[in-house]
Amino acid sequence: MSGRARSLTGSAGTALLASAAFAACGGPYSTFRPGGPEAAAVATISWWISGFMVLVTLIMAGLVLVGALRRRGTLAEHLPVDAPDDKRWIIFGGIGVPVLVLTILFLLTVGTLRHIPSATDDVDLDVEVIGHQWWWDIRYLDPDHERRFTTANELHIPVGAKVRVTLKSVDVIHSFWVPRLHGKLDLIPNHTNRLVLQAGEPGVYRGECAEYCGTQHANMRFLVIAEPPEQFAAWVNRQQQPAHTSTSPQLVRGRQAFEEYACGLCHTIRGTRARGQVAPDLTHFGSRQTIAAGTLPNTRARLQAWIVNAQSLKPGTRMPSLSTFDSETLNAITAYLASLQ
Ligand code: CUA
Q1: Are 181 and 205 in contact (CB under 8 A)?
Q2: Identical topology for domains 125-232 and 249-338
Q3: Relative to the CA of 213, which ligand 1 atom is closest?
Q4: 298 with 291: CB under 8 angstroms?
Q5: Which pLDDT score, from 0 to 100, does residue 13 have?
Q6: Of 136, 280, 317, 321, which one is least surrounded by beta carbons within 10 A?
Q7: Does the structure show a pLDDT above 70 at 21?
Q8: What are the residue ranges of helices labelled H in the chain?
Q9: DSSP letter at 95?
Q10: Does 220 contact ligand 1 (Cβ within 6 A)?
Q11: The listed CATH number (3.30.1050.10, 2.60.40.420, 3.40.50.300, 2.60.120.620) that belongs to domain 125-232
């Protein structure tokens, strides 16, 4: 290979590495692309810490290089390890520098935490998020109990509003993380944590569980959908309604099958006989973008596959594989669920 060709290959490789590194900074889970004020404070400290670490790494690499390039000398020429000159380096490099570095990081962190409220009453909306293996139970609280409602795996918020999210868990420790909107916070059994979520611009922000919680930890995802206030109000209005009832024979058959088979023992569909409390509320299932907590897109085909063989799509999930339905019943159930807008 000619020198020119080699240098071209080398620069292509460097460009590829650099673009891979920057792509990692810009993805849907990137803390470097903040979507709200709390996340902006986290992004600022992330840049400071990253820059500081690059600086420390460069200094260390430089020192290693200097050591490697120095004339080595003979053993007799070296000072003994307990000579006063060598001790100074151990005290300065081994204690002084780490204390300095950690103190700077500590002060940066404490400064950032002041911009991230957790226990304020000055909020526009109250939501409770309950962690389950492996999905998110989302309850919109309201002083008026008639106006409360429950959904799952999809948290809608109005743009600009301060949303207090109360975090709980029914089983093990999970962690609520929407990298573009806030830092992580754990959901702990028998303990309540709170954070204030705020999105500066409309959009779909991806979130996921950030604490290992069992086999399907990696498939415990959710969406935060920030929308203009009037669009959010319309969404709330729809969610507060019980499931719509249709007279179409297929949808009636689907609803009856859902109520009569095991589905209704675990899931609730408000306005029907399905009142289960251990699995996601499906009252407005058709309006959601994903199924199985962000694992699959919410399409008719995926839903049928999920009902028939959930255990192969998400091994270990509490949803059993229900392979006993004939195809007409399966079509009716999925058509009914899709109609729950
Ligand atoms: Cu829930 Cu990891």
Answers
A1: yes
A2: yes
A3: 2
A4: yes
A5: 56
A6: 321
A7: no
A8: 3-26, 37-69, 84-91, 97-113, 229-240, 249-260, 263-266, 300-313, 327-338
A9: I
A10: yes
A11: 2.60.40.420
Q: Measured in angstroms, how far is the CA atom of residue 144 from the centroid of ligand 1? A: 32
Over residues 215-258, the pLDDT tens digits come to 999 999 999 999 999 999 999 999 999 998 888 999 999 999 99
184 lines ligand 1 (CB under 6 A): no
Tell me what pLDDT residue 250 has. Answer: 92
User: Does 89 score more than 90 pLDDT?
Assistant: no
CA distances from 156 to 27, 36, 229 (A): 21, 15, 11
Which pair of structure tokens corresponds to residue 14? Answer: 């460097």
Closest CA to 136 of 281, 310, 308: 281
Residue 1, pLDDT score = 43
Query: Is the beta carbon of 211 within 6 A of some atom in ligand 1?
Result: yes
Question: Residue 339 above 70 pLDDT?
Answer: yes
307-329: pLDDT as tens digits: 999 999 999 999 999 988 899 99
Query: What's the predicted TM-score (pTM) here?
Result: 0.83
Ligand 1 centroid vs 168 CA: distance in angstroms? 12
Fold of 249-338: Immunoglobulin-like (2.60.40)
